[in-house]
Amino acid sequence: MSFDARVVVMLNKMIVYSPWFSFLWVFITSYFGYLLIVGTVVYWILQKKSDQEAYRNLLFIFCVMVLSTLVFTEGIRYFWYRPRPFLALSGIHVPYVQAGSSSFPSGHTATYFALAFAMYYFNKKIGVWYLVGAGLIALSRIILGVHYPSDIVGGIAIAWVSLVIIKHLFTYRFE
């Protein structure tokens, strides 16, 4: 059994022992990302920036997320299929219905790490909390048997590359 598979099996066993633990990770994987998105919008509304700068910064974050998720993640999945752990490994406990799309790379991880990296780019103190939140979402995907650790690493790498590309494009366009 590969290292990826062993990690998934080991972490997935934890949710079998406690329904509350299972509920926590299902909540994190299903809803915590929406809290991060709402938090981002609220943060930019409360900023004392000009409307043009605030909208440009929100557009920057949106572009990083779209490039990460819809272009890179879905592009890779279109050309390469990797079955999710709950489909490929026996004995994986799945506490809620999962999609059967490709496992690599993790779309949730790419999306929320793109958001976290962008927030960190604008505000390091708040960005650290977003990185922790994105990390919890990524960990929940492994614990719930939806992704392998390498899927998570791939999603993080995609998010970082997306930030660098959008930063370059915005610097070229707006400065």
Features:
7 helices; mainly alpha; 175 residues; Vanadium-containing Chloroperoxidase, domain 1
Commentary on this structure:
With 175 residues, the protein is mostly helical. The protein has one domain: Phosphatidic acid phosphatase type 2/haloperoxidase (Vanadium-containing Chloroperoxidase, domain 1, Up-down Bundle). The protein has seven helices and no strands.
Quick recap of the structure?
The protein is mainly α and 175 residues long. 79% of the residues lie in helices and 0% in strands. It contains seven helices and no strands.
Got a strand count? 0
Shape: globular
Give the topology string: H per helix, E per strand: HHHHHHH
Cα gyration radius (Å): 17 Å
Tell me the CATH architecture: Up-down Bundle
- Give the low-confidence spans: none
